C-alpha cells in the first residue's frame, strides 16, 4: 500500500510539471556557482534565428571581480568546453567564434534582449560564462527562442512529424490485423494476448501523440499540451512492454495462471523500478540541458534503466539453463530440444531489441550529419516495429500453438504449488464426451472408459448374470 501511495504521488508531480520540450524555453539559475554552463544545442539552417531575452541576471560578489568577463556565447566551433581551462580567454579573442553575446552587468545586475540571424548553418551551442576571477553565484531568469526559417524544429528533427505519423499507420494496421485474427474461430486466446493488444494500443496512441507534438512545436515553438497525452501513453507502453516480455518468458497465461516465487520477486523489483525510471527519464528529457546536475542524473537513470533491462531476461536465461540440463532426459528429449530452441530464439531477439534501442540509438547520432539525425528515430521505431511483429507472430493465438504444446506433460518449470493442465488433451476429451452424449451410443461410452477402469461395479454384476443365464 505504501508503494502505491508513493507511485501516485510521483505521478501527480510528474503530470503537474511544465515540460520544456519546445523551442521557446524558459531557462533559469538559482545561486549557481558554476563558471561554465552549456545551456542548449540547436541545429540551425541558413536563415535561422536565435533570440535571448534576459529578464534578470544577478551576480554576487561582482564588486570584487578581477575582470568583467561575464556573458552568453553562441558558437559552433567547439572552442568552448567545460573542461577547457582557457575557455575564459575567449572573451579576449575576436573573429574566432561565429557569434558573441556579451553583457556587462551594472553593479552585478543586468537585463537585455538579443536577436541574431544565422547565416551559416551548423550545430550551435549556447554557453553561459562567469569568469570574473572570484567566487560568485549566478541567479538568472531568461527565455531562449531558437528557430529555423520555416520551422521551430532542429534541422535534424524537421522530418519527424511525417515519420511518426507513418509509423502510427503501421502500428494501427498491425493492431487491426491482430484484433481481427483473435476474433476468428478456433483460436486459443489467453490473457497474455489481451495484454499484447493493450500494448499495441498504447504504442499506437503514443506515437500518434508524438507526431502531433512535433507538429505543434514545428509551427508554434510550443507543444500546446500535446506532450501530456504522449507521456501518458508512453508511460503505459513502457510498463506493458516489460510486463509482456516477462510474462511470455515465464509462460504465464499460456501454461499457468500463477507465477512462482522467483518470478514474483523479479516483478516486484523490475516493475516499480521501471515505472520510476521511465518517469524520471522523461522529466530529465524535458529539462533544459544546462540545469544543475542534468548530465549526472541522466547517466544514472540510463544506467538504472539498463539494469532493469538486464533483469527482464533473467527468467529466459534461467529457463534456457534448465532446459540444457534436462534436454537428454529419457522420453522428453525431443520436447526439451524444441523448448530450448524456442527460448533461445526469444532470448536472442529480445536481447537484440533491447540493446539496439538503448545503446545503438545513443551511438548512431555521433556518425550522422546534424541534418540526418532523424535517421536515428527511424532506426529506433523500425526495430521496435519488427520486434512487435515477431512477438505477435511467434506467440499468436492458434489451435496448435507450439509454445503450448512443448509444455505438455511437463511439471519441472514450476514450483510445488503450480499445476500445469494440458489444455489440448482436456479440450479433446471434453469434445469426445459431448459427442458421445449426443449420439447416445452407450457401447462407445463403455469402450472409452474401459481402459481407465471407470466401469461401474453394478454393470459388472449384471453382465456376469446375463452370461450365466445364456
UniProtKB/TrEMBL annotation:
Residues 437-470 are annotated as: Disordered. GO terms for cellular component: Golgi apparatus; membrane. Residues 29-133 form the CAND6/7 N-terminal domain. Keywords: Membrane, Signal, Transmembrane, Transmembrane helix. Its main location: membrane. Residues 1-22 form the signal peptide. It comes from the Eukaryota. It is found in: Membrane. Residues 442-461 have a biased composition (Acidic residues). This is Uncharacterized protein.
Amino acid at each position: 500500500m505504501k508503494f502505491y501511495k508513493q507511485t501516485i504521488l510521483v505521478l501527480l508531480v510528474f503530470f503537474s510539471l511544465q515540460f520544456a520540450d519546445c523551442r521557446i524555453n524558459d531557462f533559469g539559475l538559482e545561486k549557481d556557482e558554476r563558471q561554465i554552463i552549456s545551456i542548449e544545442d540547436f541545429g540551425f539552417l541558413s536563415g535561422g534565428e536565435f533570440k535571448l531575452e534576459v529578464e534578470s541576471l544577478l551576480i554576487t560578489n561582482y564588486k570584487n571581480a578581477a575582470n568583467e568577463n561575464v556573458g552568453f556565447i553562441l558558437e559552433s566551433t567547439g572552442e568552448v568546453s567545460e573542461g577547457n581551462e582557457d575557455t575564459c580567454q575567449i572573451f579576449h579573442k575576436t573573429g574566432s567564434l561565429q557569434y558573441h553575446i556579451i553583457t556587462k552587468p551594472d553593479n552585478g545586475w543586468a537585463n537585455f534582449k538579443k536577436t541574431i540571424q544565422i547565416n551559416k548553418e551548423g550545430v550551435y551551442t549556447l554557453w553561459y560564462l562567469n569568469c570574473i576571477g572570484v567566487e560568485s553565484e549566478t541567479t538568472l531568469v531568461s527565455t531562449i527562442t531558437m528557430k529555423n526559417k520555416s520551422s521551430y524544429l532542429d534541422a535534424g528533427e524537421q522530418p519527424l512529424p511525417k515519420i511518426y505519423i507513418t509509423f502510427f499507420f503501421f502500428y494501427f494496421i498491425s493492431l487491426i490485423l491482430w484484433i481481427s485474427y483473435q476474433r476468428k474461430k478456433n483460436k486459443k486466446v489467453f490473457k497474455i494476448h489481451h495484454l499484447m493488444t493493450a500494448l499495441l494500443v498504447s504504442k499506437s496512441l503514443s506515437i500518434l501523440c508524438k507526431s502531433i507534438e512535433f507538429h505543434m512545436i514545428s509551427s508554434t515553438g510550443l507543444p500546446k499540451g500535446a506532450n501530456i497525452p504522449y507521456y501518458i501513453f508512453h508511460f503505459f507502453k513502457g510498463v506493458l512492454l516489460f510486463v509482456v516480455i516477462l510474462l511470455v518468458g515465464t509462460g504465464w497465461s499460456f501454461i499457468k495462471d500463477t507465477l512462482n516465487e522467483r518470478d514474483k520477486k523479479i516483478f516486484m523489483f523490475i516493475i516499480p523500478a521501471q515505472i520510476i525510471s521511465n518517469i524520471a527519464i522523461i522529466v530529465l528529457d524535458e529539462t533544459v540541458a544546462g540545469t544543475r546536475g542534468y548530465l549526472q542524473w541522466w547517466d544514472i537513470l540510463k544506467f538504472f534503466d539498463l539494469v532493469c533491462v538486464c533483469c527482464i531476461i533473467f527468467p529466459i536465461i534461467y529457463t534456457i539453463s534448465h532446459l540444457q540440463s534436462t534436454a537428454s532426459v529419457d522420453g522428453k528429449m525431443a520436447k526439451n530440444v524444441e523448448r530450448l530452441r524456442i527460448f533461445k530464439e526469444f532470448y536472442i531477439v529480445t536481447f537484440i531489441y533491447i540493446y539496439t534501442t538503448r545503446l545503438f540509438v545513443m551511438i548512431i547520432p555521433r556518425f550522422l550529419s546534424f541534418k540526418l539525425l532523424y535517421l536515428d528515430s527511424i532506426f529506433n521505431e523500425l526495430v521496435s516495429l519488427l520486434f512487435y511483429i515477431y512477438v505477435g507472430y511467434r506467440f499468436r493465438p492458434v489451435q496448435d500453438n507450439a509454445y503450448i504444446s512443448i509444455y505438455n506433460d511437463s511439471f519441472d518449470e514450476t514450483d510445488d504449488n503450480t499445476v500445469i493442465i494440458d489444455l489440448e488433451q482436456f479440450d479433446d476429451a471434453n469434445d469426445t464426451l459431448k459427442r458421445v452424449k449426443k449420439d447416445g451410443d452407450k457401447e462407445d461410452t463403455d469402450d472409452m472408459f474401459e481402459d481407465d477402469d471407470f466401469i461401474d461395479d453394478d454393470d459388472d454384476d449384471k453382465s456376469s448374470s446375463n452370461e450365466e443365464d445364456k
